[in-house]
Design brief:
With 325 residues, this protein is an alpha/beta fold. Helix content is 45%, strand content 15%. Strand 7, helix 9 and strand 8 form a beta-alpha-beta unit.
Amino acid sequence: MAPSMYNLPTYNDVLLAAERIEGVAHHTPVLTSRALNERFGMELYFKAENLQRAGAFKFRGAYNSIRKLPEATRAKGVVAFSSGNHAQAVSLAGSLLGAPVTIVMPEDAPRAKIEATRGYGSEVVLFDRFTQDREEITQEIVDRTGGTLLPPFNHPDVIAGQGTATLELLHAVPDLDALFVPLGGGGLLAGASLVAEAIAPNVAVYGGEPKAADDGQQSFRAGKIVTISSPHTVADGAQALAVGQIPFDVFKRHITDIVTVGEQELINMVLFILQRMKILVEPTGVLGVAAAVEIKDQLAGKKVGIILSGGNVDLTRIGEWAHAV
């Protein structure tokens, strides 16, 4: 799926996506925590996409994209590759819209995500992320079935759908000083930057990324996409080797910076939010808040929006992390 085949998504595409998902995607709450505000010295507003259908923001982009397909195309099926959240989102959206779904997933993805994907009725094809090419495997399935490939981030309709999360947040809290968004392949950050640029251009937009998977930060600072080797990080949703060309071309125009975060900081934040806010957020999902904390001296007293991108985490890992702290 070459980026040159597409026009870049626009703010108007986000507005149209909001219409398509209305009444289907959850209008997730914006949460606050006095304990976190006091601890980190800023006024935090959390867009709780961990409470979205299928457990993550990905449902927005998946439903928007499949909903746009003609019915005859939908009937041939949808094929996707994903470490988990996109898989579940496409699977649920496909089941709601009558589209058969095949998902190519890494065999080391969290077991809960694999089982949840199968639970939505999708066929799951597992592969070794360190020795096999997921896009090659996916393309073979597309060629064999005639299905439509729906990538996790490098697609304008996916980006437009993801942008609706920021649209809702900025309508709820229009006077933010900064916005922090988890960064994996770049779809969520691209959607956020489109919305902020259009309706809140003074808001500083940041991506949050694992230090162990800093392809986004390298790319943003180099002004071109940088590819890394397969990263090992607890933030399994941020293990892309490179950001997508389409999201990169969108978010590079408006974001302020990309901030990287260590592995232990991510684990600590997952546990802290669970303890203080009583909500479960996966390590990828806390990349935004962990990045804000990383530069908290620059944000003292400011109003900061945070997108908590997902909550699909294996509970046995939570126990292991808590025991190790």
